[in-house]
Model the fold of this input.
Amino acid sequence: MKLLTGNDLKSGAVTWWDGVQWSLHVGDAIDVGDHADTILARESAARRVNAAYAIEASKDENGVRPAHIKERIRALGPTVRPDLTLKPADPAAGQWVI
Amino acid sequence: MAEAQFRFRDDEPVGDPGVTVDSFGDQSNAAAVRLEPGDEARDLLPHLDRIRLIEINFPVYGDGRGYTAARVLREAGYTGELRAVGDVLVDQLAFMRRCGFDAFAPEVPLDPADAHAAFDRYSEVYQTAADGRAPIWAKRHG
Amino acid sequence: MGNLMYRYDTYDQATVDARVEEFRDQVRRRIDGHLTEDQFKPLRLMNGLYLQLHAYMLRVAVPYGTLSGAQMHALGDIADKYDRGYGHFTTRQNIQYNWIKLDQAPDILADLAKVEMHAIQTSGNCIRNTSSDQYAGAAADEVTDPRPYAELIRQWSTFHPEFSYLPRKFKIAVIASETDRAAMRLHDIGIQIVRNDAGELGCAFYVGGGMGRTPMIAPLIKPFVPLDQFITYAEAALRVYNRHGRRDNKYKARIKILVHELGKDEYTRQVETEFAHLLVQNIEPPLAELERIKAQFADPKFETGLSDDLDRSDPDFALWVDNNCVRHKAPGYIAVTISLKPIGGIPGDASADQMRLMAGLATQYSFDELRVTHAQNIVLPHVRKDQLYALWQALDDAGLGTANLDLVGDIIACPGLDYCSLANARSIPVAQKIGQRLAAKEQEIGELKLKISGCINACGHHHAGHIGILGVDRKGTENYQLLLGGCEGADTSLGQITGPGFDEDGIVDAVEKATELYLNTRAEGERFLDTYRRIGMAPFKEALYG
Done:
């Protein structure tokens, strides 16, 4: 599947296109199929996202998983500071990245 | 020829289109020349007395060779118009002015208020450049 | 603040204040849509604002690595107020904040300006922050304090109208002793302040060094430039680069490639021609300006008659003194390195509380002065030996008493793929695992500079590590190449790759094997680097891959 990701213009937070708006959670991301360029152009022009791009991902029973480790680190947070990730209470969250 | 949106001169603008540096040598009556980033500004030095307009092109704002070209020309005593053309953005104006540009013809016209704020932003400068402004060190030891 | 470092006058302050307002205006134009990201990017970069993996990152300049207590305190406050309670000290002697919001960035710059700091030219294709010797003003072996020269360069390079859109970034280092503690010859321009036969000070210019994907050691192009001409000489060196440096290929755009392709002699000839021309253009600040700056870096009022004796009865203290303290030029004083490399910690990170604590200790024990080192540690340059034990106890209580300067645990590591959008692999977890694996043996191993970069841009200086590690992306997984034999300093050398790379656990094993070979092979008094230079790569390859 193809996801769209970028950063929030003001906060810089990593965001994912969920079909309606930009979510902080990769699990909300939808497959944009062939519509990546259209959505990116519209959303960037409206400044609802910054420096956005399309990436490859897969989906299984555990949810959405970006193909590249860089995108998985973006989705979670720094592996060396679990307290600052999106899942601070889950000590095993870093394993998902690798 | 690109029309200047901002001009810091009182003389009549030259109406002729700038010729390339290559063809300039063959056209003994040309008064305007256009410099591209890869051109050697010093090739013009023997002819400065008959040039009234030098356009320096910035095809992309990030190519800063035009700043050196401008200063080299001013250091050699050129007093005609030095016009920045091409990808000229608000936030480059002050640097260009310091390097000796006195006319600006941005490809995409700039917001005049933003541009004038940019020209006037820094009341003090650290270096000697081509605009005659006294650097901070000169004021400290005036 | 004290009087031992450069203080802004109204001109400096006006310049920095104007920059804050300019950036506030630029951010406003970006947020309201007048600037596209493509147009805004170079503007934010010239204020050190990057878009990284998780957020915006702000890089704040620490000119030549020198901070007052009040400045360090302010850096801690910024970490709390605008970030997530910590900052990262970098190999360029700067500090980075990892979780910055765009609309707050102008306020951070305003807070910095209040303590005479800024983020000007900490990124972009311009002249970056000038780095220097972390022991400047304290070192027993310097011919003079190099920082006044670096400050003069800071002012000359700030908003330099001709050199703000260079082919690529440009880094200058200034040192003033034979022992190079600033990796001077791995900079675009390295300046060594030297004394000539007549006893006069001048500048030796080394041009065209650098790391990155094509590491090069800068050649000496001019052994002595008089002090009243060195800014002009730098201007000439930059002008030749701006005019002729390559702009067709980002990876060949640094000045090292120009110097290499033209040849040192031809590059030097062009600089000399330009220098002769510029000498009559009145661009050199008068010596009175250098003297004005020098007066502000005058030595603090060192007490006289102090004893050089230390009570070494506490073994942990004695170990720390032996590892982390170096000789000071004044009797009874010592220069102290605070390690930001606790075992298993993140190299170069400091919490807001730690920053404020170090600020307070600097005020109390070191004439209100601190330094950031290119090895990502903090130095208190002027500590009385009779107060050293009390200082150490305060540091130790705060987790800042690690005794590992220049040992294998004192690892330089870039932020890597945990934070950086350019990285191919993570650096920090590798540093943490190596530090933990070798902690028990690090005193036995002795001096071993280990440096890790998460990509070929080499922010972690892997080429210059006795052991270097380069993270690469191999078909979507992290892979690590091992290099041996790099070194910065007077005998600068570049590390050589051992062979095929390793995975994360494999690279930790490989480093351990290399250190085992060293321990089993070393001759009396040899450091790891000395043994490598004596026996060469072959035995290491055998140990690693045999």
